[in-house]
Specification:
3 helices; 55 residues
Length: 55
């Protein structure tokens, strides 16, 4: 989708087999800093905020 829009890819999210189980228990997605979604979000915000500080 990023390519179609002409935007840089924000990242790739690997398959997280524990995500469905977490949703079944009511745990919010990405709550664990070590799970795939949590790592993706942490890295995304680090890059996003680093760009903001460089401006």
């Amino acid at each position: 989708m990023a390519d179609v829009l002409g935007l840089p890819l924000a990242g790739e999210l690997p398959l997280d087999p524990a995500l469905a189980a977490a949703l079944d228990t009511g745990a919010p997605p990405g709550a664990g800093a070590r799970d795939p979604l949590g790592r993706f979000c942490g890295e995304f915000w680090e890059r996003a905020l680093a760009g903001e500080r460089a401006s």
